[in-house]
């Protein structure tokens, strides 16, 4: 399986709370819902449709999973929502109990076992394992060299702070730009893959 990361991201690298004002206010973040002004269905929406098309399963950190689990089941009847609800899902968590996994087809990955279990999943045959949001998890995956593709929807906005996906371990990681598509709203969908060594 390939591990594919899909993120809304600001020009200054923030990924926190793109969907709504109460999505994630950690650190006093006050710009929740910042992606809405730049969303359009063809290019921006297409980035997520495209990521989901080849997905074998979804992988989330606990907070993102809880946000998604509270939203998507209510949207049944929409093709994208139906796919989100039906596809197998993994959530990395040290605190969620199995009895709390109310979103259809969700399996908990204990936090202490996360890197080993995700490495194991990546080694299996099949489509993509897609990560949406989940900045803490994405930082870990990047640090461990477990990311095969980054699909970044870069929005023309500066947020002045907020959570990021970038490891801060002073390690050089070179990426190859595979494609860029620009929407009428000024968002750029940029697909990156790790550059070959050497």
How would you sum up this structure in a few lines?
With 198 residues, the chain is an alpha/beta fold. 23% of the residues lie in helices and 27% in strands.
Structure notes:
An eight-stranded mixed sheet has the order 4-3-2-5-1-6-8-7, with helices on both faces. With 198 residues, the chain is α/β, with parallel strands linked by helices. The mean pLDDT is 95. It has helices at residues 44-53, 62-71, 79-86, 114-122, 135-143, and strands at residues 2-10, 55-61, 89-93, 106-110, 128-132, 149-155, 175-182, 188-194.
Record keyword descriptors for this entry.
8 strands; alpha/beta
Low-confidence stretches: none
Q: What is the residue-averaged pLDDT?
A: 95
Counted by DSSP, the helix tally is: 5
- Global geometry: globular
Order of strands in the sheet with most strands: 4-3-2-5-1-6-8-7
The Rg value, from CA coordinates, equals 16 Å
**Major β-sheet annotation:** 8 strands, mixed
Number of strands: 8
The computed structural class is alpha/beta
Helical coverage, percent range: 10-25%
Beta fraction: 25-35%
Could you spell the SSE succession in H and E letters? EHEHHEEHEHEEE
Termini Cα gap: 24 Å
């Amino acid at each position: 399986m390939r591990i594919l990361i899909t993120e809304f991201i600001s020009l200054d690298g923030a990924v926190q709370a793109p969907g709504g004002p109460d999505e994630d206010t950690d650190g006093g973040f006050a710009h929740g819902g910042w992606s809405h002004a730049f969303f359009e269905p063809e290019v921006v929406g297409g980035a997520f449709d495209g990521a989901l098309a080849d997905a074998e399963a979804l992988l989330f950190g606990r907070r993102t999973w809880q946000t998604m689990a509270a939203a998507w089941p209510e949207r049944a009847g929409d093709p994208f929502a139906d796919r989100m609800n039906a596809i197998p899902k993994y959530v990395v968590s040290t605190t969620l109990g199995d009895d709390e996994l109310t979103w259809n087809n969700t399996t908990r990955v204990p936090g202490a076992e996360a890197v080993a279990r995700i490495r194991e999943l990546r080694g299996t045959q099949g489509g993509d394992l897609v990560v949406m949001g989940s900045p803490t998890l994405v930082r870990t995956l990047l640090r461990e060299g477990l990311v095969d593709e980054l699909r970044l929807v870069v929005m023309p906005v500066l947020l002045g702070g907020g959570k990021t996906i970038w490891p801060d371990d002073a390690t050089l990681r070179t990426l190859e730009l595979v494609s860029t598509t620009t929407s009428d709203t000024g968002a750029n969908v940029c697909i990156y893959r790790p550059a070959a060594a050497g």
